[in-house]
Design brief:
The chain has 14 helices and 15 strands. The protein is of the alpha/beta class and 423 residues long. The chain folds into two domains: 146 residues, Aspartate Aminotransferase, domain 1, CATH 3.90.1150; 222 residues, Type I PLP-dependent aspartate aminotransferase-like (Major domain) (Aspartate Aminotransferase, domain 2, 3-Layer(aba) Sandwich).
Length: 423
């Protein structure tokens, strides 16, 4: 389907929904209401909606806690001592990994620090880190303080690759050239897989290959990538990655994070990790032997026992992802984002331009609108109309049509509202 065949009519949008094999999954989520009507929720890149099964699964754990107390670690219907194992196979399929290479644990910033303690091991010669200019603050602060921890100056050790003048996204050739130029001074490339501000999806395979060619490691913050774009972390030879689960993974505010570590590092005897009792082998964990011996999987990056109640929503959401599969999700995501782009480009009276790449291979289900004027007023007016989007300073509105619960009619309704406004 090309833009030439799209139509900006309610009837056309409804026809796309009737043809959509995933449309009924919308019924599995709670859609917020305004004045008794469902809002147009385009903010899944910030906080995904709640699966309706979450409350049922939460009640199961509350009942098991009431029934068993501490014995729930072994007697609960989903025993708490191994609860995180519910996620390994499903997460591995989402990120293209072996089940032993992933674990659900901690939060994004905690995982960034834990992984950098393992994989940022600078020397006087090789100590620099490449990141994207304007990265989310999780990445900025973790990298800055890790550099300081190792005795280096951020102004010297951190290389930020920025867009060219009057552009908003980073040219791939500039990123690869920066890696080549840094050469044997480069210890690590650490990027957001999808940039939170522009929605740009970096070519993680090319970046990883380029990093390895100069002897550096490659790691990625996948907060805006997991559950959004196709990933093959193992085959791309990515060294490590981490993510949160409350955005596209719909796992609740502050939901559990995740870790990927390539098997070649897990099995390497020199790979360092900070020790915690939950990172040891499950069969001997409660014996608490002297001396830290990490588990032979990504689970060895766990520190303490997980928050079971925090993980329930993750369980509910991953069940849905597993039924649908990333191939079908990506296909719908491409169609929805392209249709939204078509509709927005028909609006000529508002002072914005789309700064997210037009190439579907270089973006997920997000469009960022850069306003030269009145952006905040448009954002506030959208909220008043029951359209939930995201404002980012200084002048960007981000919109994310999530394929699990958004409809094509949602997108037309947004267009209809914007098209009628005059500021």
């Amino acid at each position: 389907m090309t833009a030439a065949t799209y139509e900006a009519t309610k009837e056309y949008a409804e026809s796309l929904d009737r043809e959509d094999s995933l449309f009924l999954y919308r019924e599995r989520f709670h859609i917020p209401q305004k004045d008794g009507e469902p809002v147009i929720y385009l903010c899944g890149h910030s906080l995904g909606l709640q699966p309706k099964s979450t409350s049922y699964l939460m009640q199961l754990e509350l009942d098991d806690w009431a029934k068993h107390g501490v014995e729930g670690h072994w007697k609960a219907r989903n025993p708490w001592a191994s609860y995180q194992q519910l996620f390994t196979t499903r997460l591995s399929k989402m990120v293209g990994a072996q089940p032993t290479e992933v674990v659900a644990a901690h939060s994004l910033s905690v995982n960034l620090h834990l992984l950098m303690m393992s994989f940022y091991r600078p020397t006087k010669q090789r100590y620099k880190i490449i990141m994207e200019n304007g990265a989310f603050s999780s990445d900025q602060y973790a990298i800055e303080t890790q550099v300081i921890l190792h005795g280096f100056l951020p102004s010297d050790a951190i290389i930020e690759v920025a867009p060219r003048k009057d552009e908003h996204t980073i040219q791939e050739e500039d990123l690869l050239l920066a890696i080549e130029t840094a050469g044997d001074s480069l210890a690590l490339v650490l990027l957001g897989g999808v940039n939170y501000y522009t929605g740009q999806f970096f070519n993680l395979k090319k970046v990883t290959t380029a990093a390895h060619q100069v002897g550096a490691l490659a790691g990625f913050d996948l907060a805006h990538a997991i559950g959004n774009v196709p990933l093959q972390l193992h085959d791309w030879d990515v060294d490590f990655a981490c993510w949160c689960s409350y955005k596209y993974l719909n796992s609740g505010p502050g939901g559990v994070g995740g870790i990927f570590v390539h098997d070649k590092h897990i099995t390497h005897p020199d790979t360092f990790r900070l020790g915690g009792w939950w990172g040891t082998n499950e069969s001997t964990r409660f014996n608490m032997p002297k001396g830290y011996v990490p588990d032979s999987s990504a689970a060895s990056w766990q520190l303490s026992s997980p928050s079971i109640l925090n993980m329930v929503a993750h369980h509910a959401s991953l069940d849905i992802f597993d039924k649908v599969g990333m191939v079908a999700l990506r296909e719908k995501s491409i169609r929805m984002t392209a249709y939204l782009e078509f509709l927005l480009k028909k609006i000529k009276h508002l002072p914005f331009r789309i700064i997210t790449p037009s190439n579907p291979e270089s973006r997920g289900n997000q469009l960022s609108l850069w306003f030269s004027d009145n952006g905040k007023a448009v954002f506030e007016a959208l909220l008043a109309e029951g359209v939930i989007v995201d404002w980012r300073e200084p002048n960007v509105i981000r919109m994310a049509p999530a394929p699990l619960y958004n409809s094509f009619e949602d997108l037309f309704r947004l267009y209809d509202i914007l098209n009628k406004w005059r500021f």
